[in-house]
Amino acid sequence: MSDADDIDLFDGAAECGCAAKLPAGQLATVLGELELPDDPAVLVGIKTLDDAGIYALDAERCLVQTIDFFPPVARDPYTYGQIAAANALSDVYAMGGRPLTAVAVVCFPASRLPLAALGAITRGAADKLAEAGCALLGGHSVVDPQTKFGLAVTGVVARNAIVDNAHALPGDLLVLTKPLGTGLTIMAIKARLATAAQELAANRSMAALNQEAARLALALGVRAATDVTGFGLLGHALQLARASGAALELWAGALPQLDGVRGFAELGLLSAAAYSNRAYVGSDVAFGEHLALADQDLCFDPQTSGGLLLACPAGRAQALVEALGGPAAGAALVGRVLPEDDGPRLRVLTAPPSP
Q1: Considering the entire predicted model, what is its pTM?
Q2: Among the listed residues 336, 337, 263, 345, the one whose alpha carbon sits nearest the alpha carbon of residue 297
Q3: Pick from 40, 41, 195, 316: CA 20 to 30 A from residue 123's CA?
């Protein structure tokens, strides 16, 4: 038994995982004030609030770059490291890229926790990077009152294979590749209301790579993608809709979700980030008349290492869901892309409208 075996990283953690992100509205305000040089090699920058940046090296090859780190999202240090790595890698997968290298970002309370805990976190991340075929090159650490860990990841993508959040077309169908509810489950774990099985399922979902989902998406001609993380399903869906100049219709009854999360939502186990996500989306969403508040709240729940939201040509969407393993694996057809009009960009219905 190591010194890390009895540690519960949730002890003293005010916010967990991607729920600790700066609220999307505040971030958009700050980024909107930046004056950036016009560089034609920047193919995807901050303008569309996409998952990663893309920089053209030449006419064929591009770099994909991202960074992601957060406070503990699991009680166990090794599991936390795995999830942090899967979450950072997901940004590269969402752009159609292949991760090559990573460097770690470490904030650690060395006077409060044993170094064995940091060792376990780092091993978890290194093992997940090895699974992805991504090399860990090093990192940077500082002493901090709150543990935080993550990675800056560099990948590559062919210029003609880039997938971004700006090319969804009316008629495309929306596929979600992982179940929702990690934020609610984490809150339930901290409140000691989640079962061991529910905690394990959430950790396994968060630690799972989006590598295969991205590969299948490329093979089936997905036009646009984003990964669903701290701004919740609707926050990231709104960014995709805005970037694409489209509207999205989502079907609440079709959304895959972790076991127990609707009950957690009914109990009001929402993080502060869920409320800031609702404020960010604001009047850009319209909910169906009879959609329960718990179902609405699930759409704002901040996810950590969530699935990919994919805009897929309608004729290929069902094949994509089946290739991903279908509902049993947490993948589902959850909506469609509509033309932009005078209505809200997001419409959340209980089920698809009748033909």
Answers
A1: 0.94
A2: 263
A3: 195
